[in-house]
Write a structure and sequence with these properties.
By secondary structure, the protein is mainly α. It is built from eight helices and no strands. The longest helix is centred in the first third of the chain and has 17 residues.
């Protein structure tokens, strides 16, 4: 347990010190009704084949793979099916977008609101589109 804590701490510090803001992206809230257009644009730029590597690059795997057993974050296995049911009337893609860009808007029951709040600024549009496209595939894990 101590080793995992040290690993998480080191990864957090690496991510924190490597942060370089990209150009600002619109950060629509659910009430704005703009997620659909934003997500469609992101998916048009994205490549799901790059998604797994990007999940590693942005350390998503630390919590969504390694931290699953310790209840840090939910597993991504089957997210393509669960995502459409999480926040009706949102589509699966809109839910995944919101979960990355506005992670505290909805927190899955049983998990803490522990996701970093700056992924919306740190991840370039093309990479964000690739991550969302990847998570919509049955291969996402």
């Amino acid at each position: 347990a101590l080793a995992l804590l040290v690993i998480f701490g080191v990864l957090f510090l690496v991510v924190l010190f490597e942060f370089q803001p990209e150009e600002e992206r619109p950060t629509a809230r659910v009430a704005d009704g703009n997620y659909g257009a934003i997500v469609a644009d992101l998916l048009a730029q994205g490549d799901p084949a790059q998604g797994d590597a990007l999940m590693e690059k942005y350390t998503c795997v630390v919590c969504h793979r390694l931290g699953v057993e310790t209840q840090i974050a939910p597993s991504l296995v089957g997210i393509n099916e669960r995502a459409a049911e999480r926040r009706p009337p949102m589509s699966a893609a809109e839910y995944i977008y919101e979960s990355i860009v506005h992670p505290t808007e909805y927190v899955v029951e049983g998990y803490p609101a522990s996701m970093l709040q700056d992924f919306g600024e740190r991840i370039p549009d093309q990479e964000l589109g690739s991550i969302i496209a990847y998570l919509l595939t049955p291969d996402a894990h």
